[in-house]
Design brief:
Blueprint lengths: L9 H8 L9 H8 L6 E5 L6 H12 L6 H4 L10 H4 L4 E6 H5 L6 H16 L10 H12 L3 E6 L3 H5 L3 H15 L4 H4 E8 L16 E3 L13 E2 H11 L3 H8 L2 E3 L2 E4 L1 H10 L9 H11 L6 H9 L4 E2 L15 H10 L4 E3 L4 E3 L3 H10 L6 H7 L2 H10 L2 H15 L8 H11 L7 E4 L8 E8 L8 E8 L3 H11 L12 E8 L5 E7 L1
Parallel strand pairs: 1-4, 1-5, 2-3, 3-4, 14-15
Antiparallel strand pairs: 6-8, 7-8, 9-11, 10-11, 12-13, 13-14, 15-16
Helix pairs in contact: 1-3, 15-18, 19-21, 20-21, 21-22
Pfam families: AAA-ATPase_like, PDDEXK_9
Organism: Faecalicatena fissicatena
Protein name: AAA family ATPase
Length: 519
């Protein structure tokens, strides 16, 4: 048992011992079918914290000769598969995390990787080993002697391609990958290749090291979509087990629509269950910087599209032209596609559109907006909690003041009286309300007005339900009367607790007034 060659099952053991374990072992059934076929090279590029590394640890434990994982897999889904024993712990496994090499060997990374692999191979196979031989030739000789093929797992395979500007180094690295996955020798020794990365495989001119891989991305992952992230049914089961409100969990962590499946961020859901607290667990400061880098780009329509998404809308994106390279952003579509692959936007393939997937990611955008051209928007968002409390407490003057500020801020980008702009104003003014409310546009919006229903969820405490209308050129009291006349039989039908009616109006001078009544 080594570090890189035939590693043990320690990583998967930790996952199995964790109080929140969701069984994803059926992925192994899919991988078993790929072994020894033309489709035996698989590349998974998903956002961070979507379970790629956990899957790699599970693959180690299942295939590696470095351990006997029978007890570890007992009771799992894969254990009932007829071919379970056929593949379990029957392979020589090499597992590399490229990012750990990159941290200390940026100039000689390929040499260091090969050196460390050779050290471990030499311990088990000294007679077949010659340091002057190509790594592919060494692996082939070992296979010829033992008859045991290799499973090769590489985490963060794209680390070098993403971070290096040295084209000679990138070429050397890709040639190394070619030797493992596409050389003549690999046709004999390679049973399965499994690589993970953040971005899909970059199309590099004159390089073909990875063009034999089948790719699974944030845009399309069928048939293995459900093995990366938590499915809705899995989250419902966790919410029941930990006595957590499912609708609030959905608002915070749902939203990734991949191949028609709603996938949840598994890390964030696990943390919320463990601590019994809904919060933003994607607190990586580099994430905020990454978002900011893309939304600050000076491409026509980008700012409008970001604001549309922040207010709950979707925008069309052409994902086809993206070169799978964060350094090669040449259009608004490239910027948005990059954010999709990084997990900061969701993608609806049916309508070819991007959107902000959930409240947790929306809060990451909120942090990212605090610099540059977005400072006014960030300043307005920072007052959202004050606005919500002012609304609940009936402070009509403060509500009118803050809605007027939001209206001026967001319509400096959009049209002042446009129905979508008015919807945007209300959504952005109450930007933090989704932490406690399900927000529904109750009536079809028309020119000069927009209205929303705020339906409190289980974690809302004493916060009341609210109907909020924003209208042009009518008094706030008239708006309240019209709300009563409509009676709102939709989302609040049968609702028996406290309901606030909030009427907000503005005139041609852009002056806002507010009236609030309890119903």
């Amino acid at each position: 048992m080594g570090i890189f060659f035939n590693p043990g099952n320690g990583s998967f053991t930790k996952d199995r011992n964790y109080e929140i374990y969701v069984d994803k072992t059926e992925l192994l059934k899919y991988l078993n079918r790929a072994i020894g076929t033309p489709g035996n090279c698989i590349a998974v590029s998903h956002a961070r914290r979507f379970g790629k590394s956990h899957a790699a640890g599970m693959i180690d434990a299942y295939y590696s000769l470095g351990s006997d994982s029978a007890k570890l897999f007992k009771g799992t889904k894969i254990a009932s598969d007829p071919d379970y024993e056929k593949y379990r712990n029957k392979y020589n496994v090499i597992h590399l995390d490229i990012s750990s090499f990159w941290d200390f060997h940026k100039k000689d990374i390929v040499e260091k990787i090969i050196e460390d692999i050779f050290k471990e191979l030499k311990m088990d196979y000294p007679e077949e080993f010659n340091e002057r031989d190509r790594i592919s030739y060494v692996l082939m000789k070992i296979y010829k002697k033992t008859g045991i093929p290799f499973v090769i797992i590489i985490d963060e395979w794209d680390c070098v391609v993403r971070n290096s500007t040295d084209q000679d180094l990138i070429h050397q690295y890709l040639q190394f990958l070619h030797s493992l996955f596409k050389s003549e020798e690999s046709k004999s020794f390679l049973a399965l290749g499994y690589i993970t990365g953040i971005m899909p495989i970059k199309k590099i001119k004159d390089e073909s090291a990875l063009n034999n891989f089948e790719e699974y991305t944030m845009l399309k992952s069928r048939p293995i979509t459900k093995y990366y992230g938590f499915t809705e049914e899995e989250v419902k089961a966790l919410c029941k087990r930990y006595d957590m409100d499912f609708e609030t969990t959905k608002e915070w962590y749902n939203g990734y629509l991949i191949d028609g499946m709603h996938m949840y961020n598994p890390n964030s859901v696990s943390q919320a269950m463990k601590y019994h607290d809904f919060d933003s667990y994607w607190r990586n400061t580099s994430a905020f910087g990454t978002i900011n880098n893309f939304i600050m780009m000076n491409y026509s329509g980008l700012k409008e599209d970001v604001l549309t998404m922040l207010s709950g809308g979707k925008v069309m994106v052409d994902t086809e032209c993206f070169q799978n390279d964060l350094a090669e952003i040449h259009s608004k579509d490239d910027a948005l596609t990059a954010l999709i692959h990084l997990g900061y936007l969701g993608y609806d393939a049916d309508i070819l559109s991007a959107y902000i997937p959930n409240y947790e990611v929306a809060k990451a955008f909120q942090s990212a907006l605090k610099t540059g051209e977005w400072k006014d928007v960030a300043a307005s968002i920072s007052k959202c909690d004050t606005l919500l409390m002012a609304t609940i407490s009936g402070n009509t003057e403060k509500v009118a003041e803050l809605i007027e500020l939001a209206h001026d801020t967001y319509t400096s980008i959009l049209k002042y009286n446009d129905e979508n702009s008015l919807s945007c104003v209300l959504t952005m003014a109450y930007f933090t309300a989704p932490a406690y409310y399900t927000i529904i546009r109750e009536m079809p919006a028309g020119k000069g007005f927009a209205d929303f229903v705020f339906l409190p969820r289980a974690n809302a405490g004493n916060r009341p339900a609210m109907i909020v209308e924003l209208k042009y050129n009518q008094s706030a009291d008239t708006v309240i009367r019209q709300i009563k006349e409509k009676r709102y039989q939709g989302a609040l039908s049968g609702y028996e607790s406290k309901i606030l009616l909030v009427g907000i109006s503005y005139d041609s001078e852009k002056h806002h007034t507010c009236s609030i009544e309890e119903w």
